[in-house]
Amino acid sequence: MAGLAVTVAFANLLTKENFGTYQFILSMAAIIGSCTLSNMSTAITREVANGSEGALRYGFRVQLQWSAAMALVSLSVALYYILIDNTTLAIGFLIVGTFSPFMVGFGLGHSYLIGKQLFKESVLFGMWRKPIPLIALLGSLAFTRDPIILVFVYFASSTLSSYLLYLYIVKKFRLPTENNEDMVNYSKHLSFIALISVIGSNLDKILIFHFIGPAAAATYALALLPVKHMQSAFGLLRKMAFPKFSKRNYSELQETLPRKVRLGILTSAMLVAIYILTAPYVFKLLFPTYPEAILISQVLALLVLSVPRGFYTLAFTAHQMKRELYLSRLTLPALTIFFLLILLPPYGIWGVVAALFISHLVVNILIRYLFNRRVTTQTFKQPNGY
Question: Which residue has the higher pLDDT, 212 or 226?
């Protein structure tokens, strides 16, 4: 809700160009943030779920060592924009490079709570952490509309709130430090996969910014916003399920998971139908200056139907099935990038929409194939199909 409140304020108070610039920097920051052990959090959650109390502090230490790559990439991007005389973006990426390593590192604290299955504490701590960036950003709007100042406020306040949460968790649970090279090695595999995935999931906004302009990037970001919020609901369920998946026998998951995925598809279909019917009223109320985003958002909402497939890849992750992870997680961004480059130049935003749908359809089929193939090769009982 905090993110939605900030987006509503930005969309109504900033020009489309400034809002698009802000969104572009955040999209690029997501890619830059993956130039490290970006999935260390998943590896920590898995180790904590299996009894390793020292995984968080050791993971944080290793994360910071690897985060030098983020600073170097940010500096390189900033130098590029200096060379082409775009001081605004140059300063923006210097800010990203300064804060991202610490923001990502301190953000690992939440993974400990998920691994311990302290879901109530996770929600409460999350609610405590989010007001700091929210108050800082909304307060900044009273004095400035400059996207670069807003980027600085976002990263500085988010880093501070993550640090306070990390410090509280370490002191509250008196966490030791335990070397765990297996965790680091597994996080390397997950992080490489995440790097390609993050590029694929943010390239659409970056290409729209460069090919069509910041105003179009702002429109697309708002069209995608409700989809992200619907997806986040399933993301919370996946976080809660991950420790349980790590402890349960994989053959048992193969028996029970398809039925739960079907239930997830049915639930997501209901959410999508409700959203499609209410979208015109939502945009008229929250984003009255972006009527062109309504139809785009209604069509993009159909992508939520593919979200429950994430429980299959969650099973792959929980049981360190690296081959299945590489195939399932890398295919989507690879296809997305391929079709974006083909369809965006001639068809604009609708080319982006088509690229996303084609990619998700192919990957849905692939993931279910990998899930079933694992069953037949290990002579487990075949689960029921859809």
Answer: 212
Cα separations in angstroms, 335 against 30, 296, 356, 372 = 19, 21, 9, 22
Residue matched to tokens 């509250």 = 172
Q: Which of 11, 257, 336 is nearest to 150 (CA)?
A: 11
CA dist., res. 332 & res. 327, Å (int): 9
Using CA atoms, how far residue 347 sits from 211, 300, 307, 373, 382, in Å, is 11, 16, 26, 37, 43
Identify whether 191 is part of a domain: no
Angle at 102 between CA 100 and CA 107, to 5 degrees: 95
Per-residue model confidence (pLDDT) at position 343: 95
Determine the number of helices (DSSP H) and then strands (DSSP E) in the chain: 16, 0
Tokens encoding 52: 């390793």
Q: How far apart (Å, rounded) are the C-alpha atoms in residues 162 and 172?
A: 15
Say whether 204 sits in a helix, a strand or coil: helix
3-state secondary structure of 146: coil
Is the residue at 200 inside a domain? no
Q: Which of 202, 212, 210, 204 is nearest to 348 (CA)?
A: 212
Q: Are residues 344 and 263 part of one domain?
A: yes
What are the tens digits of pLDDT across the range 325-382?
888 878 888 899 899 999 999 999 999 999 999 999 999 899 888 877 754 334 333 3
For residue 203, is it within any domain?
no
- Phi, psi of 378, deg, nearest 5: -110, 10
**What's residue 374's pLDDT?**
52
Q: How far apart are CA 84 and CA 386, in angstroms?
A: 53
Is 310 part of any domain? yes
Q: Please tell me whether residues 137 and 267 are part of one structural domain.
A: no
Q: Which of 54, 45, 185, 53 lies closest to 107, judged by CA?
A: 45
Same domain, 3 and 134: yes
- CB 192 within 8 Å of CB 198: no
Vertex 99: Cα angle to 96 and 101 (nearest 5): 100
Number of structural domains found in the chain: 2
Domain coverage including residue 223: 212-386
